[in-house]
Amino acid sequence: MGAHSGKVAVVTGAGQGIGFAIARRLHATGASVVIADLDAAKGEKAAGELGAGAQAIGTDVGDESSVSALFSQVLSAHGKVDIVVNNAAIVPYTAWDDVDFGEWRRIMRVNLDGVYLMCRAAQVPMREAKYGRIVNLASNAFFAGTPNMSAYIAAKGGVIGLTRALATELGPYNITVNAVAPGLTASDGVLASPHKDSIAFVETLQALKRTGTPEDIAPVVAFLASDAAGWVTGQTYTVDGGHVRY
Ligand code: 4PL
């Protein structure tokens, strides 16, 4: 019996990177896992790697009807949703004054509106079941004010705020809402972006002198998504090798 056996979990952005590591962890500990990624082909490939008990549903978290279709499909396949992990995000690397309003909105749409839409849809079946575990991915960049990520940091601050607010709103229904704030992590997205060039410098700021990986993030998400975390809600756990401390 794993920590998530019999549970149904939806993980957004799980076609790669931190999301995939989370999906793999929840699957390994017994959950049926739905990989909700914008890139349907990548999602299918990820689900295929996990095997039985994993499926992919192409989803745009910033689109209300796409999110609604995701939950309809999950509910008709499984009859419930125990765990939702809101991981999908755009991770930009753009100087503040090169971000125009269209780019600002694009990042807000996915990174903040997407979390709102997913939480709003998730709480319907969770309320009915009087059980739910929602884990939102924030970032330690919210605490550090990391350069070249202004819209991302503003959105992640919104995610932390929404996490606190929804913990209050959904607590009476036995739904916990928490956030995990990774630091710079050697994810697929980071390794394909200019962020990879910050790895050596950020390591000098960390208490732990190595590069964080998606496998370092997944167990903390898995804990907050488990029955064992039933007395934890409204919190943000920073998982960054001791980069920021507060
Ligand atoms: C410290 O969340 O937290 C780069 C890229 N550096 O996405 C992040 C730091 C990045 C971060 C992040």
Task: Please characterize this protein's 3D structure.
With 246 residues, this protein is an alpha/beta fold. It is built from nine helices and seven strands. The protein is globular and about 45 Å long. The model has no long low-confidence stretch (mean pLDDT 98). Residues 91, 139-141, 144, 146, 183-184, 190, 195, 198, 202 line the site of 7-hydroxy-6-methylfuro[3,4-c]pyridin-1(3H)-one.
Topology:
Elements: E1 8-12, H1 17-28, E2 32-36, H2 40-50, E3 54-56, H3 64-78, E4 83-86, H4 101-129, E5 132-137, H5 141-144, H6 150-170, E6 175-182, H7 188-191, H8 199-205, H9 214-224, E7 236-239
Parallel strand pairs: 1-2, 1-4, 2-3, 4-5, 5-6, 6-7
Helix pairs in contact: 1-9, 3-4, 4-6
Give a brief description.
The protein has 9 helices and 7 strands. The protein has helices spanning 17-28, 40-50, 64-78, 101-129, 141-144, 150-170, 188-191, 199-205, 214-224; strands at 8-12, 32-36, 54-56, 83-86, 132-137, 175-182, 236-239.
